[in-house]
Amino acid sequence: MSVSETRLIKLPPKKTRFPKWLRLPLEWFALPILIVAAWTLISTIAPNPRFPAPAQIGQSFATNWLNDTFFSDVLPSLGRLGLSIVLAILIGVGLGVLVGSNRWLRELLEPIFEFFRAIPPPMIVPLLIMVIGGGDGMKIFVITLGSMWPILLNTIEGVRAVDSVQKETARSFQLTGPERLTFITLPSASPQIMAGIRQALSVALILMVISEMVLASSGLGYRIEVFKQNYEYAAMWSIIVLLGLIGVLLAVLFQIAERIVLNWYRGLKEAERA
Amino acid sequence: MSVLQRGRPVLLGVVGVVGFLALWQLATSLGWINANYVPSATDTFAALGAFFANPDYWAAIGDTMTTWAIGLSVALVLGVVLGTVIGLSSFLRRYTRTTIEFLRPIPSVAIIPLAVVLLGPDRDSSLVIVIFATFWQILIQVLYGVADVDPVARDTQRSFGIGPLGRFFHLVFPTALPYLMTGIRLGATVAMILTVTGELVIGTVGIGRLMQQRSIAGDYAGSYAILVTAGVLALAINLIIRVIERRVLAWHQSVRGEVLV
User: Fold this and answer.
1) Mean pLDDT, each 10-residue run in order, chain A (274 residues)
2) Are A237 and A226 in contact (CB under 8 A)?
3) Domains of chain A
4) Which residue of A lies nearest to B91 if distances are taken between CA atoms?
5) pTM, two decimal places
6) What residues of chain A lie within 8 A of the CB of B234, using their CB?
């Protein structure tokens, strides 16, 4: 008989209420399904034309949007939105790098820019219609102008905050202007720029709808006005679903872009935290 | 020398503003832009001066600020309460994530037609869209903030036997406060944008509606004067919130660090 005895202690079996593969889908879909179910139940017990059942909204969504209107109203709206966002990013980042890297220019222009950014962008819609009419140009101009400021000011701030040791090192290694821009300035300002773009996206989406609500003959905003005038409740709810989906789509695209652009930054943050 | 250097940004800023005004004046008087629709700087400021004696103007500003303040306050209370409740429970956090991520990006203008038809073209409809848009800004920040609690500090408090109330006031709240202030700052701007949107699109009383009335009546100088007013209001709100942020977070590294440098 040995002095020490090896004994195996049996651990109590782990309590798992749900199998592991089921847990994530459950986390994702439990609450949405619960909400839709409760809504359906309430709308069958006490039907109210103003709050149609989810099935009705889905049906209205299909009949209103998944046909020609998708090409005649939804796609043109999305096209204008996309073009405006690209323009806002190009102008905002371009101008921001220019102004941000020149201290003199920055101090000269920043107060004016801050004021322009403060003006609530929807207010420029009625005034711009006077000057350039209600065409595609006006809509793109409004969305671009309104969503440009957060990108512009964040870029200025980001460019200003570039590490001075990095800047001086780049200079002593005789990096050319474009090289400094692509390897030092833009990467180090990118977290700020992305934060600005995120703010710009939600403003752009609002402006897309508003620019079409006034003086338009097509587009999402125009459809919204038509449904409102005809008191089509299910259709009005379907707009919320549609614009929600567009919003989610934009958010997903942004997250992918952010992941690509800020890959180095996330790694750095995780390393710092570890 | 140091006074001069400190004064330089202010001086240049003033030069920038004056330069912009001069350019605006020049552009309208030399016909670079259509002077029929875009008034000159002097006309705009003359109209602004005339507004100062006009009680309708002050009433419109009051109405706008009322809608803004009510909307922001309701969103703040809702966002803080729900954000704290959800943020403190890992179960709730996990199970509400997809729902929040799907509801949050819905642009609040999508709700306008429904709000108008259900509630009428009054302040209530505007409030619905203001609250909806602002609520998410604050909720998300509070969620992040509450989740940011330092695990070591939390465990320390727990082992010292500090109750849930003490934990909330001495750990969770101070941790979440910088996030909350960011949420309020972003939310205040968003609330202002949607307040004005409601006035323009729904027709709720306020500066947005006043501007639209003026521009339909052909009073472009008045319209631009109101645009300037809106900018000044939003800028003032922003500055006040930044001052409050600095006061409230005077103990926090982000503010203390700035003072030292």
Assistant:
1) 69 69 84 92 87 90 84 88 96 94 89 91 85 81 93 92 84 85 87 92 90 75 80 87 90 90 74 59
2) no
3) 57-273 (1.10.3720.10)
4) A27
5) 0.87
6) 118-120
